[in-house]
DNA sequence: GATGAATGAGGTTTCATTCAT
DNA sequence: AATGAATGAAACCTCATTCAT
């Protein structure tokens, strides 16, 4: 979609870049940033170390771009869902389902995502975290907007600040994602729409 | 209570050990395991490197013992609260309050705790995580028991497996703890007993 | 004979490897395994420490390969001589001469060889020694075979087990080699074929 | 004999010193100088590290004194035998027997002795070696004197410089000692007076 | 005097990054 | 342009030696 009009040279570059990032994603997710050497990334991606440094100025930046791009993919998908059709309840259900689906697709991604959301920063200065957090906050805002809308329309009870409701819901989802981490392929421990109704029960006006 | 009767030599040893762990806790929590050198721990704790190795056979073990001891302090406190007096609802409220209180006391601890709960393992083999996870699962079991008891007594609606309810509640709490991470001293974003009622609204039979 | 057809890259590698081993041989022979640091080997061989580790996984292995290769060179030469033409007596004389000659070429090698034959093991577990000892025992067996052959042909008196005669002869040679250690270049203290006749006088039937 | 008249304080000191050296002998002989820590010597000798340093200014000196004293014990015994009664042949036989006997008594000692005779020096500067070598040369001189005497008296053939005959005999003995190293307790591989007659056969005038 | 806790220099090894080919 | 051999800073860890108690 994006690359159609690029000259072949550019397209190749992008493809190579993506291959490197894909290899790196697997390694970083499995072993953590500090237990993966550039040598390993070079080996798995089947590029030379020199080539890696053509694409990324250093290891940290490679990692940062990886995290940011994965975050972006995730974020766009979530935004798409949250802006989708359907009433408030339907969109929340869809969010829960879609978030699970993405994680189903790649447990590797969960690990990376969690590491970045919760783990210590790479170097005590924490730059990729900020990028991830910015996107997470955007999602939380959109969730909050849905809650606010629901309240306004009289469909939800006004049970606290919409932002806090968003935090509560999203954290609960994350908890269940973590529960499923051991298994491969990942699955929610139960039907998510059932399980997470629990969370909503108190909200919905009878 | 514990150390009164130990000979002075032993008490000194324990005190020194604690000083090392305290220094290490600060550094590890702030910068993460791989960004802290033994040299730094020696500097901050004001012991020599050699002395660190008298107390801990290697860096990983120093970290592991640190994590396990902090985990234990946290776990005991949570168990105390969950086994405390009061009906099911009171004990849950107390749990929420106490968990927040411990984190208030030391934001450093939150970082360590989260890193261990969610972060990548130290070496891709993940040992201290297991110890932490064991304790978390024990807490979840105890929370689940409270939910089960509440349901049995007819005070809670039977809204899903008690274990899943426990996961949902605890994850929500963690979400709010994370929200408060930036601030120092830490505080729940709102009165926790109000905020978290949200979560419980659906459960409690009107 | 061996390297003619190798691609240049491979030849370079082998040459570098040999340069490292040569530098290491000098140092280890002069100061002993434990008094030589990798830093020193790097310095003397004019490679960086990192490069040493490209060729050898660790210091012990560098040493082991050094010892084994030197042992091999020595062993092959001795086998060549012992399987050479000539009657029993001529081959023994040739062995004595050739052993002396090799040592003449490199006093450094004597030191290494003796250290491995007689010295304490590197780590109390003694692995390179075994390789060296295996080769020494092979030589002793070949010497013994010559003695046995001489006895069988009626040229030597049957003065004890051939293996013991071999031990006696070889030890005597070693004794003279040690005598010459101080000097550079090394020389047998006297004409070896004269000196060592002493040893054989009792054996040869008048 | 030496300590009878010393005040008790002095006697105690000497006894302690000896206990340290005995413990150290065992360790050094088994593992080699560089694989034994002062901590280990302290542990095995049941003295504190501080006490070790009261007796010896540093590790190297402890080792050196150990080697020199063991060398002395050995040297005196050999001198006693070589200056003993009997004709030249009897004294040589007695030397062979006695050297074997000492080694029988302590394989640990063989290891130390061989390490010092043949091994690399401790620090590339090789001081204890010189002490040992001095004593070995003295023994060789005394052996040579016996050979010279035998020749002079017309009992031995004049088969080369007496010193070289001494080297040849002593090296042969060492060779057999090494052969027996694996076993515990040590024994010559055969009756030494038989085996080593081989060496002398050529010398003795029929 | 005896002790052993404390020190820190120095050892081995790893790995991000550079640059000649 | 691509490669990967070479580099060396910096990490972990040991242990001979000192010195306060």
Describe the structure.
The structure is a homotetramer of 206-residue chains. With 206 residues, chain A is mostly helical. Chain A folds into two domains: 1-56, Homeodomain-like (Arc Repressor Mutant, subunit A); 64-201, Tetracycline Repressor, domain 2 (Orthogonal Bundle), CATH 1.10.357. Helix content of chain A is 71%, strand content 0%. The first copy, chain A, contains ten helices and no strands. The first copy, chain A, has helices at residues 8-31, 38-45, 49-55, 59-82, 88-105, 107-118, 127-152, 162-179, 192-195, 197-201. In chain A, helix 1 (8-31) crosses helix 6 (107-118). The longest helix of chain A has 26 residues, at 127-152. Chain A starts with 7 loop residues before the first helix and ends in a 5-residue tail after the last helix. The mean pLDDT of chain A is 82. The interface between A and B is large, with 45 and 46 residues. The structure holds a DNA duplex (21 and 21 nucleotides).
């Amino acid at each position: 979609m994006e690359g159609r009009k690029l000259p072949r040279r550019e397209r190749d570059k992008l493809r190579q870049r993506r291959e490197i990032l894909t290899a790196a994603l697997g390694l970083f997710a499995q072993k953590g940033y500090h237990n993966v050497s550039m040598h390993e990334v070079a080996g798995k991606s089947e590029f030379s170390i020199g080539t890696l440094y053509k694409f990324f100025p250093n290891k940290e930046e490679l990692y940062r771009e990886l995290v940011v791009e994965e975050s972006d993919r995730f974020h766009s998908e979530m935004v798409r869902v949250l802006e989708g059709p359907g009433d408030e309840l339907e969109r929340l259900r869809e969010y829960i389902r879609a978030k699970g689906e993405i994680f189903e697709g790649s447990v590797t991604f969960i690990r990376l995502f969690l590491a970045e959301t919760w783990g210590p920063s790479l170097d005590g200065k924490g730059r990729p975290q900020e990028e991830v957090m910015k996107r997470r906050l955007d999602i939380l805002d959109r969730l909050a907007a849905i809650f606010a809308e629901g309240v306004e329309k009289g469909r939800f009870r006004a049970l606290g600040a919409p932002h806090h409701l968003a935090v509560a819901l999203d954290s609960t989802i994350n908890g269940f994602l973590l529960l499923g981490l051991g298994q491969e392929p990942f699955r929610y421990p139960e039907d998510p729409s059932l399980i997470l109704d629990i969370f909503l029960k108190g909200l919905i006006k009878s």
